[in-house]
Amino acid sequence: MDRKEINISYTEYGSLDELSAEDRELAHEAVEATGNSYAPYSGFNVGAAIRLDDGTVVTGSNQENIAYPSGLCAERTAMFYAAARYPDIPMDTIAIAASSGGALCREPATPCGACRQVMAEYQSRGGHPIAIILVGAEKIWKFSRVDDILPLIFDSLGK
């Protein structure tokens, strides 16, 4: 038997001002996208902003439905739109923010498992890592690749 470990690394920032101008702009877009959320059941508004390799930014927000689970997360809304609208341009970075009661959540909100797996697929399809910025009111976490939030990516079909 061999005991193994999986280590991840990320950078924690204390405020948006510590981010690069490019990442700060993307984080602001994600925060703004929370305002487009339709979340009458959970009251948990999530926004996502994706910067594509050519600099284009697309956004998405969570969309709930009374017939749960017919809604869709902000991350997948943004990724699916980006892939449908710009199918040949890989994704570079995704920023995610969440608010509740009209205020940005203190801690960064983390993506659900389904969103992480979709990010992994687009990362593989794009041929390079997708950076992830998780925005909270008191801290921001930046991961350099999807593998750091989904270390055992499902990619076993055909292998």
Defining key terms:
Cytidine Deaminase, domain 2; alpha+beta; 7-stranded mixed beta sheet; 25% helix; 24% strand; 159 residues
Termini Cα gap: 24 Å
Average pLDDT level: 96
Q: What is the count of helical runs?
A: 3
Task: Look at the structure and give the CATH class.
Answer: Alpha Beta
Q: Strand content of the residues, in percent?
A: 15-25%
Question: What's the number of domains?
Answer: 1
Radius of gyration: 16 Å
Q: Architecture, according to CATH?
A: 3-Layer(aba) Sandwich
Number of strands: 7
Q: Please state the overall shape, judged from the principal axes of the Cα atoms.
A: globular
Task: Describe, in plain words, how this protein is organized in 3D.
There is one protein chain. This protein is α+β, with helices and mostly antiparallel strands and 159 residues long. It has a single domain (17-148), classed as 3-Layer(aba) Sandwich (Cytidine Deaminase, domain 2), CATH 3.40.140. It is 25% helix and 24% strand. Strands 1, 2, 3, 4, 5, 6 and 7 form a 7-stranded mixed sheet that branches. The longest helix has 14 residues, at 113-126. It is globular. The relative contact order is 0.19.
